[in-house]
Amino acid sequence: MKRAAIAAGLAVLTGVALWGCASPKVTDYQKETPKLDLAAYFTGRTEAWGMVQKRGGEVTKRFHVVVQGRMENGNLIMDEDFTYSDGEKQQRTWTIQPLGNDRWRGTAGDVVGEANGQTSGNALHWRYVLQVPVNGKVYDLHMDDWMYLVDEHTLINRTTMSKFGVDVGEVTIFFRKP
Which residues pair with 9 in a beta bridge? Predict the structure, then answer.
């Protein structure tokens, strides 16, 4: 019994170690172009289209979002207006502060604490806890965002949502800047 528990524990630790090694780092993209300048890309009007999927891939929501960004006191302010396929509307305002060395910190009304991220090359890796309402309850979900600038007009965002370390869904967004 004791050997089985030790073997199971070692298997879990090995899996976690291998998973950690397989995860990309934002610096893996440092040579990719075009270089993502977060403030420059999101200053002005940007539109986006996206979807939310359950862990198994089923699309649960589709949406359109209009982002109005501006620089204010050295911070990037992003006003996001979402319209979902079911008619629901949502608004979020981000205040994103550049910290230097390609690092960023952000806050929003439905973000627990602060979001933290780093840019490198054409990519941004952004992590935060978002309060997500579902059927009258609010869940704190860990959001792991990866954004990639494809060209000067197009940015793709892929987010993994998790709770207690278990992936519960994904968000995919395509941003387009005129």
Answer: none
What pLDDT score does 2 carry?
Answer: 59
What is the per-residue pLDDT across 17-75, written as a single tens digit (0 to 9) for each? 444 557 899 999 999 999 999 999 999 999 999 999 999 999 999 999 999 999 999 99
Domain count along the chain? 1
Any idea what the CATH number is for the domain that residue 65 is in?
Answer: 2.40.128.20
pLDDT in tens, 102-119: 999 999 999 999 999 999
Taking a C-beta distance cutoff of 8 angstroms, is the pair 129, 40 a contact? Answer: no
Can you tell me the distance from the alpha carbon of 92 to that of 111, in angstroms, rounded to the nearest whole number?
10
123-134 and 166-176 strand pairing: unpaired
Domain that holds residue 52: 28-176
Position 15 in a domain: no
- The full length of the chain comes to 178
Answer whether 42's CB lies under 8 Å from 67's CB.
yes
Taking the C-alpha atoms of residue 153 and residue 40, their distance in angstroms, rounded to an integer, is: 11
